[in-house]
Design goal:
Elements (H helix, E strand, L loop, with lengths): L3 E6 L2 E6 L9 H16 L5 E6 L16 H18 L6 E5 L2 E3 L1 H6 L4 E4 L4 E3 L2 H4 L7 H9 L1 H10 L2 E3 H7 L4 E2 L4 H13 L3 H12 L2 H19 L3 H12 L9
Parallel strand pairs: 2-3, 3-4, 4-6, 5-7, 6-9
Antiparallel strand pairs: 1-2, 7-8
Amino acid sequence: MGDLEVTKDGYVAICRVQRGPNNFFDNDMIGELAEAGRQADADKDTRAIVLCSEGKNFCAGANFGEGGLGAERAKTSGELYRNAAKLFDIKTPIVAAVQGAAVGGGLGLALVADFRVATPSSRLHANFAKLGFHQGFGLSVTLPRLIGEQKAAEMLLTARAVKGEEALALGLVDRLVDEDPFSGALEFARTIAANAPLAVTSIRETLRGDLAAEVKSVLERELSEQTWQWDTADCAEGVAANLARREANFTAS
């Protein structure tokens, strides 16, 4: 599967993204993850999934260093979001191992999982307002569902990064480990996989409720808002400032 390695540890499927150090995503990678989830659901001997990645960061979202905003970005993002919606249809419980940073859409990918294991130095960052455009990847639903509307609004409107200890206190991550989030995520997944699989699937389905449908609906709104904002001067300035590691000078234009 391209840049995705899928292996098994007993009843746990390990889906490892291999695009280090930053693991930027694109439509192909998200499609591969959706297909791996579909295969896990079809395999009665897979009872949990660990979502992880190699390199410094869990996922730094989209690679704006490659250029392409406006209509070009809208087209590719529309395709990517259709595959992202499929991730929320996965029926097998997912535990994400979040090392380094989960930024922008990378945070959205981390929130696809049922649980997240991180380290004190892990950094979860909804940086969209600093880039000059609306959040995406379903974060309009998943973030407030996880940490509450007020804290989600704070993260999105201030665009500040949240590190491990604070993320744990917020409920943004579920466990902290000192060094290796993969080992912690695998242990977590093994604990889930040791339980009765039909009961686990049923419990999870009840708890998630209409999440998949809500995400599919909000992805359309997110993309619509992003599309016109990608054509603004503020977005061009936000992306340029981010790449240059400087403060942006926004003009509301």
